[in-house]
Amino acid sequence: MRALRLHRTLDAIWRTEPGWRGWLRSVNHSDIGKRFIIAAFTFFAIGGVLAMLIRAQLATPNSAFVGPAVYNQIFTMHGSIMMFLFAIPMFEGLAMYILPKMLGARDLAFPRLSSLGWWCYLFGGTIIVGSMLAGVAPDAGWFLYPPLSGKQWTPGINSDVWLLGITFVEVSAMCAAIEIAVSILKLRAGDMRLDRMPILAWYLLATAGMMIFGFPPLILGSILLEVERAFGWPFYTAALGGDPLLWQHLFWLFGHPEVYIIFLPAAGAVSTILPVMARTRLLGYGAIVAAVLALAFLSFGLWVHHMFTTGIPHMALGFFSAASTLVAIPTAVQIFAWLGTLWNGRPEMKLPMLYLIGFFIVFVLGGLTGVMLAVVPFDTQAHDTAFVTAHLHYVLVGGFVFPMLAAAYYWLPHFTGRGRVMRIGEAAFWLIFVGFNLTFFGMHLTGLLGMPRRIDTYSEEMGWTALNLISSVGGFVQAFGFALFLIDVVLKTRLGQRVRRDPWNADTLEWAMPIPAPSYNFASLARVSSREPRDDVPDLAVRLARGDGLLASAESGRRETLAVDMTTGTPEHVAILPGNSWLPIATAATLGGFFLLMLAGLYPFAPLFLIGTAWLVWRWAWSNGSRADIGAIDAGDGLRLPTSFEAQGTTGWWGSIFALSASATLFASLLFGYAFLWTVAPNWPPPELTQAATIEPVLAILGAALATLAVRVRRATLAAAGQGAILLALAALIALRMPSPSSHAYAATSAAVAAYGIFHAGVAMLMWLFIRARSRAGFHSPARDAEPRIATLWSDHAAGAGAFAAMLLVIPGWLA
Ligand SMILES: [Cu+2]
């Protein structure tokens, strides 16, 4: 009886309201995760249709199926959709859905942020795909190299669609990355030490960390290219002191880690599913964690292997070639750990296992051609040929699609509570596996025979006809396989038999709940004493449902979950999570309005939407918090814990640390660009453009000092004034002292550095005004001081960056 009452009250607190209103307002991680997965699969299908068009075009020589202009849009969109609208969102969806359940929590750390990310993804993806219908889709290749993507060679809005649309979707990726990292570090079952975390959590933590440091270079590069296209600031124009290679560096600084951002979550699924299929435990947990962290770190030092043929120094060639072969080591550690796990266990050929075997074969082949391409002389020959296309598909389809299909079959019962219908999944596997190899194995050979990537047709004499036809036939076989997979999933969802709680006999916490999952996941939260909580306590699910665990009371009416110490997992405080809200969709809509107006070239009006966004963010922040001290509350099991309103080291604090790390990475990428152009561009900076002003930098430094000191004595108004001084000083430097940013890349880069400082000073200023208003409204007390402490982080960063930017703008002038 008590269990049923607990279920009813918890569901009333956590559930999504029925109807479209609830659909728009929901912030629940299960809802948002499922939406991400469904949308990502839809985009995958669209990208797949584009792939079919490519194969139809290349099936025969001298084909006129589509013209070259349309063909350019097709292959560009195929790559962009698969990378940005399928792979990353698919992993985000899986992580959002499964992660809190695996960690024994009730939701993610920032439910409204997940919802914002979802709407940004949906709106951005729709803009990008919609551009195809309008015939103005991006057409400069998925990596959009200037000068081809610049104004001169792409005068239409095609490149703008990519730059603005992808950046909009990237907002969602950054939200997800911060969300995932903080959730793993803070919201876990009681006593879940770091080394007791399910292995997938380690993979996702590494992935989220890589996104936080890997995406900012791309976001920066895209902003700079869009500004160059829109306002003529010549960052990438060689004639005006820029360099198109700067784009390649920024793009691949993101693009190489991106491959691992896609691979690691999939490998995490392999490490989770394989031991269950083999009825044993994962071999070498510690070695795998070390390998994953090493891979995440190494992957940032390899980006130049995409640029071996751009004429970089010999020394760099040697270094990046060696570094590229080095990644084979941590990858091999994982492969051997998986093989050892299979060896130890008694593998059963269930459906997910079949897809895992497909993964092994395809991915290892892709890895081997990767080692070949890491060798510079070979790469010089194979660069930009179909060989590279074959390699990257073996890596990405092998390393992501096959594991994700295994994951789909593994976790599908969790989503639906139903089992399988017929053996359609096996048939789908064979079609996909055979079709894939038919398509891409021959492409290695076509590439070695000299067929370049991205050409729209070829003549009979080249000798590529038979291989291309085989590839095309294989492509269509694969498409049938994916269609069958889709049919299978729909059938299972509709007709499958109801299954018991844990169909695979797995030992992680997501199976310790009824399926499909209740809105609140667990009626009470577990404390764990090992990595296999369900082996330790066989009836754990029943006990949690009965309310024997932590936070079994729902009397407060708030959404509560446990926050723990990051390393030891000791219960630390009770995180209070926000409920359903209009704010995420409204914020995404105003951001979408900004991007659409930029796309339409209505630049003067676009900032209005940013003001709207700022107002909504203000209201959003205002809706959190408490006006009274609550004190410690009874968390069960004899624990009395404070709420997150009165705790230190909250999710908000850690979220800010990660957001600022991402922002600092963006700034560092900009400084890298500055240093890069200084090094490679001739006559940089031109002495006549430099500026030796002293008043403004002094003002900026005084402002920074005022802001930094004022926050130490909690004087919000003075801190805001200090930030205002920085903002004014930087604006004056750019507007009054420096030449027009469109005159030279030096002026443009300096203006971008100043813009970074201005933006952060502006944000910090608003934060202090917010803090002042909140203090007066009674949201702060000696116990409830999380907000001013978070604002201090942002303020200090803005002060440092602002003073630095002001100095950077005048030092070349002082030296001249
Ligand atoms: Cu790479």
From TrEMBL:
Q: Which class of enzymes does this protein belong to?
A: translocase
Q: Which domain of life is it from?
A: Bacteria
Give me the reactions it catalyses.
4 Fe(II)-[cytochrome c] + O2 + 8 H(+)(in) = 4 Fe(III)-[cytochrome c] + 2 H2O + 4 H(+)(out)
Q: Does the keyword Coiled coil apply?
A: no
GO MF terms here are: cytochrome-c oxidase activity; heme binding; metal ion binding; oxidoreductase activity
SUPFAM superfamilies, alphabetized: Cytochrome c oxidase subunit I-like
GO CC, sorted alphabetically, is:
plasma membrane
Transmembrane intervals: 36-54, 74-99, 119-141, 161-187, 199-225, 245-270, 282-304, 316-341, 353-378, 390-412, 424-449, 469-491, 582-599, 605-622, 653-677, 689-711, 718-738, 744-771, 792-815
Q: Where in the cell is it found?
A: Cell membrane
Family designation: Belongs to the heme-copper respiratory oxidase family.
- What NCBIfam families does the entry give? CtaD_CoxA
What this protein is called in its record is cytochrome-c oxidase
User: Which organism is this protein's natural source?
Assistant: Sphingomonas carotinifaciens
Q: What is the lineage of its organism?
A: Bacteria, Pseudomonadati, Pseudomonadota, Alphaproteobacteria, Sphingomonadales
Question: Which gene is annotated as encoding this protein in its UniProt record?
Answer: ctaD
